[in-house]
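Subject: Glutamate dehydrogenase structure
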Amino acid sequence: MSYSTRILTALKEKNPSQNEFHQAVEEVLISLAPLFDKEKKYEKHAILERIVIPERQVIFRVPWVDDSGKICVNYGYRVQFNTAIGPYKGGLRFHPSVNLGVIKFLGFEQILKNSLTTLAMGGGKGGSDFDPKGKSDNEVMRFCQSFMNELYRHIGAHTDVPAGDIGVGGREIGYLFGQYKKLTNRFDGVLTGKGLNWGGSLVRPEATGYGCVYFAQEMLKERGESLEGKVCTISGAGNVAIYTIEKLYQVGALPVTASDSKGMIYDKEGIDVALLKEIKEVKRESLESYAKIKKSAQYTPVSAYEEGCNGVWAIPCFAAFPSATQNELSQKDAKILLQNGCKCVSEGANMPSTNEAIELFLQAKICYGPGKAANAGGVAVSGLEMAQNASMNPWSFEVVDSHLHRIMESIFANASATAKEFGDPTNLVLGANIAGFRKVADAMIDQGVV
Ligand code: NDP
């Protein structure tokens, strides 16, 4: 049995029913096999045995009182996965589907993603099964305060710096930061994604979406192609999707779709970004409202999607940007995308494509940018926010954006060079996984058995 297979088998036995975690680790370990054939030091130092177990994980009770006076209780999580190359860094997700397996998959991905950014950040992730949807601002505030009543003990500007993710945006980061300050009497850069006038960075809201488009441009440039004048499809209608759409217009592409948990819109004239922001960020309504206002848009509810498919991927496109959630692009979806001539998939979300879908993209040798490389712009700008906090010196939009652009270019260059080094030049899954892993694993070896 190979080193990777042995570790994966043991991991599945020891962590039953953490399906998303198994899936994320499996994708990485399969692509690391050529590295282990070449370099025996990682097995000798038991790196895989160590890297798949978080350094620490905290699970806690989050009690809060709703507007009617009822006591509600949620689960809270912070998984501190790896500090080989820097303090724990990774977002908080508030969504009813959150459980330990989901947070561990996200935390594991984060180790390699953060390594690829070239910045000194370890990997971590956290969240809760709390659903902010339909809650009043006061309810969200009380929940965030209760969440921080436990979390503050485990985080710090040089220890662990959480950020946003699904269900955690500027509003939630504000409430979390306020409570952290109240409890500790310290104004620390302990969270990223902060408001601009209290320590936030310009370009942080845009970073993941913009970075994902920069990454797609790099993949295409190598093949003499570009996004200019091309039809693009995007899933999701949150932070990542909105700024992916905004950047696609800036590079001359035509983004025609968006989706949320209830359905999707197809607007052949192009998605109206201002209207999308108004509906999802300000009014927090479903996309059905978009189609009621913009007559060129066609709304399809999830119930009308073909069995086992996501309606977004049925729209013919040159490039696809999955930007909603994990496993939103199935093998069936991948087949449809390829049949319709899709040449590029750049993942804004974490693990949006199933392993079977990824296999099809790799076989077809299209430009496929796995999430841990393509969506690393968000955490990269979080790293830049930490640098600005530490120096007490805020940077201009242009400076942060140019850093982001350079970082995305370097992530692509590193993943692509590594894929070539291992004889599989178009396989950026292999390239990103090996490049991200090597840096962390070598640091673990340097630091001894801890
Ligand atoms: P948001 O909460 O801002 O938006 C998420 C969007 O995805 C919403 O439109 C939501 O629909 C939709 N969505 C969520 N869950 C589902 C589901 N199960 N089925 C269908 N649609 C769903 O989150 P973000 O935009 O921040 O995050 C999107 C993805 O990007 C996630 O995978 C996240 O981990 C990843 N990511 C985010 C980064 C960031 O900087 N924010 C950085 C790197 C990766 P609805 O509006 O109905 O809730």
